[in-house]
Amino acid sequence: ATAMESDDPTERGEGHLSGGLGGDGMPRDASGSIKGRLYSYGVQKPNALLNRPVALKPRPPGAMSTLSGLLPGRDPGAPPGSPLPKALLSKPLSGSGRMPGSSAQADMNRSFGDNLSSFAASRPLGAALADSHGAGKEAEPIPVAQLKRKADEAELAKVRIAEEFKQRRADEVARSKRKGAGGGAYDATQVAKDAALADSGAGGDEKQTRRNDPFWFIQMLRTELSNNEFAYMNVADSEGTSFDPYNLRIVPFNEVNPANHYTISEAGVTHSFRKGKQEFAEFTPLAQWESECHLFQEVMEIPFFNRYHAWKSYYVWKKNIQSDKMTLCKQVLTTNLFILNTTFQPSLMRVRRLCVQLSKLRLHDIKHNKSYSLAEFEETQVAHRTATCQLLLIFFEEVRVAVQEACDKAIAIFEAEIAAADMAATDPLALATASLGVPKRSFLQQAQLRSVCNKITNYIHVVDYIVLSTLHGLLMSSLADLLHLFESVAVGLPEELPLPPVDELTSAALKPKAVVKYTPLFLVEVFFEHMGQSIDFSPNGAEFAAKVDAAMAEFVGMLRTVGTLIAHPSLREYTVPYINGRQDTTEVSEGFDIVGLIEENEDYTDLVEAIKGAFNAHFSEVVEYVRIFEPHRQIYLQNSHEFDAMLLWDADLSVFKEHLDRFVEQLALLDSIPMKTAIGIFSASNRQLRELFLPSPTSCLRQLHSLLPQIGADLNSKLLNETTHAYERLNKQPADVAEFVGFSNFLNETNARQQEFGDRWTAVEAMYQLMGEYNVHVPEQDEASCKMMEQSLSQLRYQVAVVESAQEERTLQFTDDIDKGIANLRTKADELLAAADEPRLLDGQTEVGDAMEILAGLTATLDELVANSKTFAEYQEILKVPILRYEEVDAVASNLKLKKSMWGSLEDWARQTEEWVGASFETLVVDTMNAYVQKIDKVVKQCEKGLPDNGVLPLLKEKVETFKAIVPVIDALRNPALRERHWNQIEDTIHAKVERSDGFTLGSLLDLSVNEYKSDIEQISVRATQENILEEMLAKVKVQWADAEFVVNGYKDSKDLFILGSLEDVTTILEETQVLVQTILGSRFVGPLQAAVDEWDKKLRLFSETMDEWLQCQRQWMYLESIFGGGGDIMKQLPQETKMFKSVDTMWRELMKKTNADSSALKAGTAKGLLEQFQKANGALDKIQKNLEDYLESKRALFPRFFFLSNDELLEILSETKDPKRVQPHLKKCFEGIAKLVFSEGGEIVGMVSSEQETIPFVGATIRPTSMVEQWLVEVETFMFNNVRRVIEESVVAYKETARHEWVMAWPGQAVLTTTGLFWTSEVETALATGGGKELAKYVVKLNSDLDKIVELVRGKMDKLQRLVVGPLIVMDVYHRDTTVSIVEAGVSEVNAFEWSSQLRYVQEESDIRCKMISASLPYGYEYLGVQGRLVVTPLTDRCYRTLMSALQLDLGGAPEGPAGTGKTETTKDMGCTLGKYVVVTNCSDQMDYRIMGNILKGLAQSGCWGCFDEFNRIDL
Predict the structure, then answer these.
(1) In sequence order, which residues have a C-beta less than 8 Å from that of residue 559 and are 6 or more positions away?
(2) For 1061, left (φ over 0), alpha (ψ -120 to 50), or beta?
(3) For 934-972, b where at least 16 C-beta lie within 10 A, e where not — what string?
(4) DSSP per residue over 660-702, as a string?
(5) Which has the closest alpha carbon to 1003: 1028, 975, 970?
(6) Angle formed by the axes of helices 374-424 and 428-435, to 10°?
(7) Are 51 and 216 in contact (CB under 8 A)?
(8) In terms of DSSP H, where are the helices of 1298-1391?
(9) Quick one: CA torsion of 910, 913, 917, 923, rounded to 10 degrees?
(10) Which DSSP helix (H) or strand (E) runs through 1248?
């Protein structure tokens, strides 16, 4: 009724009938018929009567149908079973259908009643029972005539229905309310409204589904349809796994399942089903059925009952399957197992016994209590191999016999069966053939024989496999035994003890400390190899390994002895039988290759490798053991090659003691070498080594024992001789002064040597004491000599004392004689001084020869006086009297020396000048001349000071001064820099011709009086020298450029494309030569070279300019060639620039080809027109570069993060547009956490991966990177933000539902940290709001518990990524715990307290996360950061965060300041991670310009990232 409350009179039913609604809220048609409403419910199709709307509920008991009050001809209170309106029955059907139980289609031109009457004839038992129960008694189906009559009456009542519509609807509403109040909570009006709304809002499929629901039909029975209506139902999900007897579906009659279906009417539900051929029916009242359905649904909510049906079905199915499989397996085994066959069972058991016996054998013969040499081991194994092969042959023969007996028995049984069958046969021909002895078999018999032979063949195969298994087991057990032999013995020495250092090795290091409880398997001989001077062992590792490998290989070879039965000739008659005189064509395998099968077996390979590994481990210890003898080897070599006792003859006593100690220690060390040592499975024999090494220190000791007595005797003998000689000399009395002086000197020496004699005697005593300490044999005569030596020293000391006591008296006696000699010496010196003043020596007219003769005689006398004076001085020193100075002798010596120098210089000067004047001018050495002149001049000056005025010295001085003046002129004329022009200038200056031929001498030059033009000649010489220097500099320039060549390298492995290589050498030459040319130009002597130098200066300037342009062109060309030379999108988007570059590229290629052909630097760099050509090319390249910059700027505008990349990096990205996967290496430069992207098989981007291999999938949509790279990167950025937001939101939800330590392991690191911060903030504020400080103190306990669980998690097993996630979480958990503790200790009890508001907090506001600190509130950035570590938060970190966040809140920046390495940059980056921001760190330098800064700032402004300019104070403003 409520569904019709509308302001529109037509909708309320106040207008035409076409606008009215039925009792169920459905619109009527224009004729006022309810046919349209019934058809809309599904009645138009007899095979799909009614459906149920989803929103309707079953009608409560006692509720009345509203349909009965609206239909004409039926009283609203009519009892169930009243006929339907005639109008309904007479209307034609608007659909198609089949008659129940018939394949004929329903007649669409017949009315519903006509079709219904035809359908009623074949109604099943269930429908009749439903009708009978619906009437409350055993009622018959409604007659067709009655149905037709009612339909006619309905047609006549159409007009009356239209007029009485409003009144009847109101009456129906009132009646529904009264019955609803009396029957419970049922409201028919509301139900009708819900049905109308459901029908009006539902689609066609939903309507059809609803009308198939039996509950909708029940509602229609209680609201619209007559009590005689019924419907058929099938089980809705008969194939489902869940059991639900109330899951039914209304179906047409032709779809009814005859074996199991239901009928439903207002009376109840009838279940009709078959068991075999018998039919049964069960009836349930409708109210009871609904109640039971409700209870069943509630019971099915219990998991046990919900899954019971599936469990039971699975259990029954499993048991059936197991039973079936067991039965099948039993049948197969009974049929196919040979062990159950009485024919083959004895043979098979016999084979098994033989195999068991064989398995007890071993393929090797190794006794545990015996050690083998390699030859013995080989001989033993060869003998065992022969015996084993014989046993294997016997085994195989016995197996073959057993198998052949079984085969014969099987054939005999077959023949017996055939004979019995033949005896029973009545075929005369067959009997006749058999009597003749010709076994002619029928086709059936042939087939039976083949079957028997096939079974025999299979049996042989089985036995072959049993034998194979036995042989394999024998091999593996033999190898296992061998492995056990190797592994059961500990590797190394019996008791592993740490070896002492090399210099502390003792006998204990080589002797085992424990009793050897096993016998080593192999013997090894350790010996010294003289050729290589090393310690070796025999046999070596290669020989041992070869023999062991050969032994294991022979194991397999022994198994070859056993063949395969299937290929044995004696069994061919069974595997390939002869039938009717012909051999069967059945192909039989030749058996298996046992060697191939074993060698391919992994267990065998592993065991062999294990044996080799164990053997190598033991042998490696032998190698290590041999290294122990390295110090012994060094001792032997040192003693053999280096020690020679005779070299120690003059050595100190400590050296002898050191050697004796060393050799004694060596002897003890070498004597400690054991004869044998057990090393694992090896026994090392050291006998040869011991016998060789032990004599080495013995021989050295023998040498020392022989040498020491000799040295002692020699020292004692020498000392005895010296003391005896001294004693005898001191006993002799001196006769004169000379002898006394010698005697006194010897006395002094002897007295001074008393300590020496004592020390030497002490050394001799120590030597003999040392010999006694080391048991060195000393001859008896040496011992007697020692005793004599002691007496001799005593006598000498006594004699020295006696002589010294008389020495003073003797000294006084001989001193008077010395004084007389000195007086005589002084008198002779005065006489000589007077003779030296000979006048002729001071006269310039004296001949030089005469003067030199006089001086020679005076000098001889002087030498005698000097010798006598030295003798007297020595006497005085020895006699210890004052030493006198002889001034007279010194005066004579000085006077004669000066005169001798004067006359000698005069003589030498004459000879030297004569030589120079006559020598060729070209041979004169000016430096030598100058040095000689200076020398003579020095003599002149000395004589002027020491000699009186005389006529000789002025003469010498004049000659020297004259020649000294001409030496500079000679030096100037000997200048090698003089050229022809200079000689011409000299000739003009001296007004004479200079003949510079071979006969030109110094005398010729002096004849020209060149000394008069000294200054002019020197100027000409200086000018020549300077011009020569300039010429040499210019020549150097030419030489350098003549050898200078460009280094031309191939470009990108191309044969025809070149670039200039290193120009370091050329640049160095250019700089040096430019400096030289400028130096030449700046000289005042450049005159003759002016033209040549100007030409070189012009060349070098041109070359420098050309090279600058050339290098600039090369740099730009190389940069742009990678862009425009390889094709791609850039060339398409910059066609004009591409054309310009092609032109420059052509020029460059041709030029570099020429340069490569002729690489002369100066020639190539100064070519005509080259500079202008490069200037033009550089202009074009500059223009291309500018346009390229504009192009890149446009790309950066589309994806602002490109501003953080250099042009090269950006171009590399843009060049990879065709393959998005090749962009991945550059992602880290654009995104903080994205290292690579995840691509699907279709090429779509479905996720992102961090550097730590953390993956975050893109949910909801994917990216298809088919557009430009900057466009799909923008999508990647958007997807990154969205999916990070999604992951954080999902992690927040999961945090509430999962244990924290499990939650941590399941979510990305960024989500873990952010969610932890969110819940920490929320829980702290909740604690403060509910209980203040007390509640917050309890929360600290929870934080500690959470932290302990995370720590326990870290101690467990985690993968690398999980550890990276947990690490930062622990840092933040500790920070949260410490912060909460500090708040509790501060007594904070409210949320607005500064101690809390000053902390960094995450707050969820609507769908966003805000990061708050004091008054600052910034949004979380959702930048994917990967799994980054977090800094430990200190109070200073908090202060930085507060300052920076407050600045950001005010749209400002911050500048942390502090010493280097204090964490300014890392703190800024960590704050960016905290707020989910990408921090772009720039290391600033003075190379940054406004363009670089502009790009970075534009990128930051457009992308929303943060910028961190490290060391920004370095930027040059």
Answers:
(1) 392, 471, 474, 475, 594, 595, 598
(2) beta
(3) eebbebbeebeeebeebebbeebbebbeebeebebbbbb
(4) HHHHHHHHHHHHT--SEEEETTEEEE-HHHHHHHTHHHHHHHH
(5) 970
(6) 140
(7) yes
(8) 1300-1306, 1309-1355, 1360-1385
(9) 140
(10) strand 1245-1249
| CA separation for the pair 1359, 1362 (Å, rounded) | 5
Residues 6+ apart with CB under 8 A from 927: none
For 163-188, the pLDDT digits (tens) are 554 555 555 545 444 444 333 333 33
Question: What does the pLDDT read at residue 370?
Answer: 82
The average pLDDT across 1007-1020 equals 72
Q: Is the pLDDT of residue 699 over 80?
A: no
Task: Give, in degrees to the nearest 5, the angle at Cα 275 between 270 and 277.
Answer: 110
Q: Using an 8 Å Cβ cutoff, are 863 and 829 in contact?
A: no
Whose CA is closest to 58, among 247, 219, 220? 219
- DSSP-derived secondary structure for 858-903: HHHHHHHHHHHHHHHHHHHHHTT-PPP--HHHHHHHHHHHHHHHHH
Residue 1304 has pLDDT above 80, yes or no: yes
For position 1313, what pLDDT does the model report? 92
**Are 785 and 761 a contacting pair, CB within 8 Å?**
no
Dump pLDDT digits (tens) for 1076-1089.
888 888 887 777 78
In whole angstroms, give the CA distance from residue 938 to residue 943.
9
DSSP 1364-1417: HHHHHHHHHHHHHHHHHHHHHHTT--STT-HHHHTS-EEEEETTEEEEEETTEE
The reply to whether the predicted model has a pTM over 0.85 is: no
Residue 53 near residue 198, CB atoms below 8 Å: yes
E strand or H helix at 1483, and its extent? Answer: strand 1479-1483
Task: Name 270's bridge partners.
Answer: 263, 283
Two structure tokens written together for 1106: 């050309």
Pick the more confident residue, 500 or 1398: 1398
Q: In this structure, how many other beta carbons lie within 10 angstroms of the beta carbon of residue 508?
A: 11
What is the CA angle 319-323-325, rounded to 5?
A: 120
Chain centroid offset of residue 187 CA: 77
Kindly state the average pLDDT of the residues 1301-1325. Answer: 91
Lowest mean pLDDT among 51-60, 438-447, 1127-1136, 1359-1368: 51-60
Q: How far apart are CA 145 and CA 114, in angstroms?
A: 10
Q: What CA–CA distance (Å, rounded) separates 1256 from 1270?
A: 22
If you search the block for the tokens 């050969």, which residue do you land on?
550
> Any alpha helices (H) in 488-601, and if so which ranges?
541-559, 572-575, 594-599
As given in the structure block, the two tokens for residue 489 are 């013995």
DSSP state of 1086: -
Give the bridge partners for 1402, in sequence order: 1411
In 3D space, the residue among 1344, 1291, 1345 whose CA is nearest the CA of residue 1319 turns out to be 1291
**Residue 1033 pLDDT exceeds 90:** no
Residues 771, 712 contacting (CB under 8 angstroms): yes
Nearest one of 122, 117, 130 to 100, comparing CA atoms? 122
